[in-house]
Fold:
Amino acid sequence: MELGLWRVDGQPVRLTPSSVPLEKTLEDLIENDPDILGEPLLIIGRQVPTKHGKILDLLAVDGDGVLHAIELKRDRTPREATAQALDYGSWVQTLTHEDVLDLFGQYRPGQTFEQAFVDRFGMAPPEEINTDHRLTIVAGDMDPATERIIGYLSRFQVPINVALFRYFQDDDRAYLARTWLLPDTDTVETATPRRSSAKETWNGQDWYVSFGEESSIRSWDDAREYGFVSAGGGEWYSRSLRALPLGGRVFVHLPKTGYVGVGLVAGPATPFDQAVLTVDEEQRKMTELPLSARYQHTATGADKDEYVVPVTWIRTLDREAAIWEKGFFANQNSACKMRNRFTLDTLIQRFTLDE
Structure:
């Protein structure tokens, strides 16, 4: 698609496109406002060296955790640029979650990836980063061979496209117009998933627990006083909680409030009616305790019970003192492995814990 631009001042005057004065100028524009490429992106690296001895112009991530490798060519794209982009893709697909955090740290020293992600997208980053990636060649023009090759690769689900920028000068004003070689419907949405390295490394010890307070069903005051966490009302809610291992360290999160406790799992999950807790060094049936909530669900059927996991608390906090920072990990699952390094490092410090 060829773009035309006219100045309308009496008689229409067509502006003649030309090359962007400097490749660095276009790179600066995209770095300062990556929306110019058509979707919200967070730049996480510029002039990024790869392990193959090449330099990638820009590396970015979108709100779904997909990595975008962006290579800029000021003028016409030679066929070699396509091979270069594919080479970058072979490197990008190997990046682990920790690699992404390290690259961002080098690009923006003193800032955290998680907080920058919240600033950009208004939400915490997904647990898995770089399950997919995309390759973008940014150019002012394109030769026929490049067009044929990109079109051919797209048929085999290679996530590559070309963004064409036309530069127009009109007296003391300059304009950029963008179009894509392939429409969105022709480009693949994802590359091949690589689940093994997309998540941050788990330390084998720490777990996240979401304690959903409900006035009549469960209460943090009860959990804090008698030493437990709980979830239930359906198999989806209780399944992950029942997977908590004996001795695992749990960080407890109150939805829309923050983290309020850390402790060690002291026993297996059992239905509320059968749960036994250690209170003042004495074994007590939970049904006999003076609880604020009832830990019963009105729904009936298989696995509708509230499941209770005994916890030996290390530190607990009032709701008003809950720990929460922009970029913290939170999840709707009742329990899952705590992988988020930023959240974990901050909680260890705030709860004054040893590693």
Notes: The domain at 5-198 is CATH 3.40.1350.10 (Trna Endonuclease; Chain: A, domain 1).
